[in-house]
Write a structure and sequence with these properties.
It is a single chain. The protein is mostly helical and about 950 residues long. It contains 27 helices and seven strands. A hairpin with an 8-residue loop joins strand 1 and strand 2. The longest helix has about 120 residues. The radius of gyration is 57 Å and the shape is flat.
Length: about 950
């Protein structure tokens, strides 16, 4: 990668490389400069560099380089000078278009300027041989070699520019212009596949604009200028789609326009809406949706009548006539009859969708969404005054088809009116979206409607009619077409017809077991039988029992608890799965980053390898050129040896091109001589073949006449043999008839005997059957009576059991209430006893507290007296406690820290002895290790009066 101090140096270097023929190196140098981070500030020199860069890209057909360079240049001049980017893109598209047109013109010129020396020869021998080998024509080969690469590059140019400008609010006009030029490219060269891709690209761009609304330079669709540009682009797309015959893409363009209008909530101008509805009429007509076609015509008529001030009376009359004829062309029956529920729902949704596209309001409720129908359309035509603007022929046709009842003469009256209507039409002077209206396109649909109306009216008058009469009454179609129309009408439940070709008649009315009346009878019988069964076997009513409902309460609670635990575990698993997915995504991102880094390194290595390969290829090309020069010289020498000329050209000082031209001229001369020889040989063969055929013609004619005579004699002979055989068969048949005629009387006698015996047997069997039926009826009556009695007994017993059960439940409820009351009284007494115990414990605690204070007061008084020498001669323990007097020696002397019962404590107090020192926090003494001794802790007993002493663990 070369680096330059200034951009001007890179431009000079590129021009020098171009001068010496190294365009690839020049392109690479400019590409490195444009993609470098050093030159991110816009300057005029960068614009000139971009012009040179796009020229090199177009010259070498490097679309990928052009896209990279334009993206980098957009980053440089987006905020500084956006007009520079616009000029560069325009120059890029101009160059690509110019080169594509030049290639196409060259291909045409090459095809038209074939060098043919012999005017009687259509093609040269080498062209014939090449076409036999490759299977291509000369124009196909020239297109594939010259035109197709440049067309591919031009298409790639349009895609690149649209991708660069898709989210740039400052270059919306350039984006729209590029889209229009791409549409014209597809239209001019009939590129249907590229047109579909282009529509999808533009649709994705708009979807991304709505999806990512936080982009900085995103176009604002609410602005009138932006909206107008996007709408103009969609309308151009719609026009090109209809001109290319891509009706599905045209309908999607209509949906795009409607979505854009709903997005910004603003209706476009009337001139655009006229184009919108004009294209809708074409789309629906091509898809055979006559109802939607008629509604689109009605909206177009309303717009033209309201906003077009230049509309002439003739144009208005033609448009109104088209509206009425389109409405009459709609089939008079429901197209969705007999469809499944899913198909009906889909049809409703499709009707609602088309109604929104056309601009008609529908019912908000789902069940009332029958938005578009033939009857509502005809009523709107009358209410909006369309019928007052049509021609007289259309009025007459409407009156005959919709209001008159002519079972026999309907088609005969409609035929002359249709012939007049088929001649109406022409170009419209003031309606640009619909340049021409031809009413003859509705004639086939109107003839079908007249046929249906005639059959409907005939079915109301006749039950049977001959097929020949129907064919005479309907002059439009043969009976096969009438039968096909009738089948479709029967399938849609519009007519009830049965055609019998053996009898040559048509029967009207319901002829099958699928009749509506029979279906009603069967359904009524089923309902009656169901009611009777319910009366005989009423459904058992389950009594609501609180006990039974609560018996499973524990099981339900347990199940609910398990379900909640399971749900908790599921939530935990989901959290763990989410964390695992996040870790996996982070791992994938890291892997992608590493792969991208690896790809970048590989791309750099590939670039270095490509440069090495390029230098090697250049060296190989030079060697090939040298070898070709040597081969050309060898060819020229060989041609000189084969030629009869003695003069030899001098090869010294000649270039390779001159030597190749000499060799090619020599080969061309040899081919021309060979062509002359072949042409002469072909003429000789032609004359020889013509002479042979002239000699063979009279022989063939004589052989043909002889064959005709032989076949005539053979035919006569076979006819005589057939006549003789027919006579013999007839005589044999007459003899057989006479032989069987003698047995006729015996056959009659036998027949009478058989019939009389069978009648007697039938009478006997009928009588036995009547007797058996009467016995069965009597037995069934007895069974029904017994069954009624049993049902009455069971019902009575069930009511008695139910009454006893209710009494038992009432008794249980009273018992439960009594137990509840007793439990409440017992609980109240227990609460009262507990309250008394609590008060007693409080009194005991107060008493103990007073005793403890009294003991503390006494011990304090004893400690305040002067210490006396111990009587027993051993040191006092526990902080100089008073010695025990001799009078109290008989009393048990408590050790230090031991518990002194209350009765001994009283005796000690009565004897005038001091109580042992307290070792708790109120005592003055302490152990040698300065740890407090255990003290008495009296706590109230929960079982009544008294106290409980807490002993240390070592004393227990």
């Amino acid at each position: 990668m070369a680096t330059f101090a200034k951009p001007e140096n890179a431009l000079k270097r590129a021009e020098e490389l171009i001068t010496v023929g190294q365009k690839q190196e020049a392109l690479q140098a400019l590409h490195d400069l444009i993609t470098s981070r050093r030159y991110r500030a816009w300057q005029k020199t960068l614009e000139r560099i971009m012009f040179k860069y796009v020229e090199l890209c177009v010259d070498m057909r490097r679309g990928r380089f052009a896209k990279d360079g334009l993206i980098q240049y957009r980053i440089v001049c987006q905020q500084v000078n956006i007009n520079s980017l616009e000029e560069v893109i325009k120059h890029f598209m101009h160059l690509a278009t110019e080169r594509a047109e030049l290639a196409r013109n060259q291909a045409q010129a090459l095809e038209e300027a074939l060098d043919v020396e012999d005017l009687e020869a259509d093609k040269r021998p080498e062209d014939l041989m090449l076409s036999y080998v490759s299977g291509e024509k000369g124009k196909d080969r020239s297109d594939r070699e010259l035109v197709t690469p440049w067309f591919k590059f031009l298409w790639e140019t349009y895609r690149t520019v649209l991708e660069i400008l898709r989210n740039n609010s400052r270059l919306e006009a350039l984006y729209a212009m590029t889209a229009h030029r791409a549409f014209q490219f597809c239209k001019q060269y009939k590129r249907t596949t590229e047109f579909r891709r282009l529509c999808e690209i533009i649709r994705n761009h708009l979807a991304n604009l709505n999806k990512y609304r936080d982009q900085r330079d995103r176009p604002d669709l609410s602005a009138p200028e932006s909206l107008q540009l996007y709408l103009d682009t969609r309308f151009e797309q719609l026009k090109v789609a209809t001109e290319l015959g891509l009706w599905q893409e045209a309908f999607r363009s209509i949906e795009d326009i409607y979505g854009l209008m709903c997005m910004v909530k603003k209706t476009p101008k009337a001139s655009l809406m006229v184009v919108y509805y004009g294209k809708l009429t074409e789309i629906f007509w091509m898809s055979s949706n006559h109802l939607y076609h008629a509604y689109a015509w009605l909206k177009l008529f309303s717009l033209q009548k309201s906003f077009n001030k230049n509309l002439s009376q003739k144009d208005l009359q033609l448009i109104a006539s088209s509206v009425v004829l389109a409405a009459l062309s709609v089939p008079p029956y429901d197209q969705s009859y007999g469809a499944s529920h899913l198909e009906l729902e889909n049809e409703k949704e499709r009707s609602l969708r088309v109604a929104n596209l056309i601009g008609f309001e529908v019912e908000p409720k789902a069940e009332n969404r029958v938005a578009l129908s033939r009857s509502s359309l005809l009523s709107e035509l009358v209410s909006k005054g369309v019928m007052s603007c049509v021609t007289q022929e259309v009025k007459d046709l409407y009156h005959v088809l919709e209001n008159e009842f002519l079972p026999l003469d309907l088609a005969l009256k409609v035929q002359p009116v249709l012939s007049k209507i088929s001649k109406l039409g022409g170009k419209l002077s003031s309606v640009s979206s619909v340049p021409e209206v031809q009413l003859s396109q509705y004639v086939p649909a109107l003839e079908k409607l007249a046929t249906l109306r005639l059959l409907q009216q005939v079915s109301q008058v006749y039950q049977t009619i001959q097929i020949d009469n129907i064919s005479k009454m309907i002059p439009f179609f043969d009976f096969t077409v009438i039968e096909k129309i009738s089948v479709d009408a029967v399938r849609r439940n519009f007519l009830a017809i049965k055609v019998d070709h053996m009898k040559g008649a048509v029967f009207f009315g319901k002829q099958s077991i699928e009749a509506e009346g029979l279906r009603d009878h069967l359904s009524l019988l089923a309902e009656s039988l169901s009611k009777a069964r319910t009366m005989i076997y009423p459904p058992a009513k389950k009594a609501a029992k609180l006990g039974e409902a609560l018996s499973n309460l524990a099981e339900i609670v347990e199940k609910e608890h398990k379900r909640l635990l399971a749900r908790k575990s599921i939530i935990e698993k989901r959290k763990e799965e989410q964390e695992r997915l996040l870790l996996e995504m982070e791992r994938v991102e890291e892997t992608k980053r590493r792969e991208l880094q690896k790809m970048t390194e590989e791309a750099e290595q590939k670039r270095i390898a490509a440069e090495y390969e390029q230098r090697r290829n250049q060296r190989i090309l030079k060697e090939i050129e040298d070898r070709e020069l040597e081969e050309a010289q060898a060819l020229l020498h060989e041609a000189e040896k084969r030629s009869k000329r003695k003069k030899k050209p001098v090869l010294e000082g000649m270039t390779k091109q001159v030597i190749m031209e000499l060799a090619l001229n020599e080969q061309l001369r040899e081919r021309q001589e060979m062509e002359k020889k072949l042409l002469k040989f072909a003429k000789t063969m032609d004359h020889l073949e013509r002479a042979k055929r002239e000699e063979a013609a009279p022989l063939i004619e004589s052989a043909f006449k002889q064959r005709l005579a032989e076949e005539a004699a053979l035919h006569e002979r076979e006819q005589q043999q057939e006549i003789e055989l027919s006579r013999q068969r007839h005589a044999g048949d007459l003899e057989e008839k006479r032989r069987l005629g003698r047995m006729l009387e015996n056959k009659r006698i036998l027949q009478e005997k058989v019939v009389s015996s069978r009648e007697a047997e039938f009478t006997r069997m009928k009588r036995e059957r009547q007797e058996r039926i009467s016995q069965i009826i009597q037995s069934r009556k007895q069974e029904r009576e017994a069954r009624r009695k049993m049902i009455f007994f069971l019902r009575s017993e069930e009511e008695r059991q139910k009454r006893l059960q209710e009494e038992e439940e009432a008794r249980k409820r009273e018992e439960a209430e009594r137990r509840k009351k007793e439990e409440a009284e017992r609980q109240a007494k227990l609460d009262e006893i507990a309250e008394k115990q609590r008060r007693r414990m409080l009194e005991l605690e107060e008493k103990e507290k007073r005793e403890r204070e009294e003991i503390l007061r006494r011990s304090t008084a004893v400690l305040s007296k002067p210490a006396e020498p111990p009587t027993l001669g051993r040191p006092a323990e526990l902080g100089g406690a008073a010695p025990i007097p001799a009078a109290a020696a008989t009393a048990p002397t408590p050790g230090p820290g031991k518990y002194v019962p209350r009765h001994l404590r009283a005796k000690m107090d009565g004897a005038g002895q001091a109580p042992p020192p307290e070792t708790d926090k109120w005592g003055g003494g302490s152990k040698p290790d300065d740890r407090p001794s255990w003290r008495d802790e009296r706590k109230p007993s929960p079982f009544g009066s008294g106290s409980r002493t807490s002993w240390p663990a070592s004393r227990r």
